[in-house]
Amino acid sequence: MSLHNRSLLWTVALFTAVNARYVMYLTGQHNHVPDLSLVKDITHVALAFIRADVFNQDRPEEWPLFTSVDAVRSQFAPGTAVMVAIGGWGGTDGFSQAAATASNRKRFAANVKAMVDSTGADGVDVDWEYPGGNGEDYKLVPNVNKSWEVAAYPKLVAEVRSALGPLLLMSAAVPGLRRDMLAFTAETIPQIDHALDFWNVMTYDLMNRRDNMTKHQSGIIESLDAIDAYVDQGVPAEKVNLGFPFYVKWFMTDPNGNCNANPIGCQTLPMEDPSTGVDLGRAGAFCWADEVPSELVNSYVKAMSQGNYDSERGGHYYWDPEDNIFWSWDTPHSIARKFPAIMHTRGLGGVFAWGLGEDASDWTHLRTLTVEYRRYKRTNNKERKHGKDEL
């Protein structure tokens, strides 16, 4: 891609950042893109993933994406920025190696730039979700052994930004639970923010298998706490994107956990091995594009027909008293409620979802998110124009 085209895309990306971002992850597991009429508002697409360890090699010969940037670009409106997401939930080791030394960081960053040049991408999303610890291997590699990553993470993203230069985009996916924000402190956040164009705060999976009490996996109260944790430590609200999950989660509750009295905040069964952290199969998730696992069909049907909205904490849920299963998911109603409660009250810069293809084939959640995004953008533009007129 020519420098002229990159400059044009940067101008478009900067304009959309001012007028609210609409970011979608597109995954290899669900590489489904609907008709252009349903995606024309999307401003950024992040292709997930290329593993982090690929960039630790000397002169990698290929960039193992599930598709090509050009193919994806043709499916979206002109000017949509196409980025490559690096890492993911299981990518801890590759990032640790990359961040360990100055020479490793330079090699990693140089390879990221080479990948962007080769693929024609408009930038990258750094998806090192748990620097400093609490990753997938947190039981086998204690957090104390990763404490050095807290200082190394800002250095790595700074090196990548330096390699990319000012015309390419760079974002980061960051954890939504305070217990996982080990590398995101009042000291490190300003350094990290200097390298990023925007932050994708993962305001989902806010209940996972490490919990022992039920709560909403993407509720309003939990999401506000995540957003405030970053903004209070220096992330500009206009650079924050609120995350939406296009999937449903379930958790097995303790038959003696008193869920009858209150399904929110009741005891679950242990969901991971206390020694190894291995998943015990008592919790899970599947997206709207997937078939419902056969063993969950009966409970799922009840959840979809009898689910409730918790107006106190802001989340949709169902507890199945027969199978002792707690369900948590976003509905069109709960998506819409997040805009006045979170987007407007905090003045955030955009939204994103994991992930676009996960909402196939009726695209119910995508349609709702698009409607609310449009409304939010119109409101922001009116407020900005009104303020300018006053001046």
Task: Describe the model.
This protein has 391 residues and is of the alpha/beta class. Helix content is 36%, strand content 18%. The chain has one domain (3-245, 330-390): Glycosidases (TIM Barrel, Alpha-Beta Barrel), CATH 3.20.20.80. The chain has helices at 3-18, 36-39, 69-73, 92-99, 102-119, 149-164, 188-195, 220-231, 297-306, 332-346, 364-390, and strands at residues 21-27, 44-50, 81-87, 123-127, 169-174, 198-201, 240-245, 247-252, 283-287, 308-310, 315-320, 325-329, 350-354. The strands form two sheets. Strands 1-2-3-4-5-6-7-13 form an eight-stranded parallel β-barrel, surrounded by five helices. Helix 8 (220-231) links the parallel strand 6 (198-201) and strand 7. The longest helix has 27 residues, at 364-390. The radius of gyration is 21 Å and the shape is globular. The chain starts with a helix and ends with a helix.
List the helices and strands and how they pair.
Elements: H1 3-18, E1 21-27, H2 36-39, E2 44-50, H3 69-73, E3 81-87, H4 92-99, H5 102-119, E4 123-127, H6 149-164, E5 169-174, H7 188-195, E6 198-201, H8 220-231, E7 240-245, E8 247-252, E9 283-287, H9 297-306, E10 308-310, E11 315-320, E12 325-329, H10 332-346, E13 350-354, H11 364-390
Brief sketch in words of this structure:
This protein has 391 residues and is an alpha/beta fold. It has helices at 3-18, 36-39, 69-73, 92-99, 102-119, 149-164, 188-195, 220-231, 297-306, 332-346, 364-390; strands at residues 21-27, 44-50, 81-87, 123-127, 169-174, 198-201, 240-245, 247-252, 283-287, 308-310, 315-320, 325-329, 350-354. It has one domain: Glycosidases (TIM Barrel).
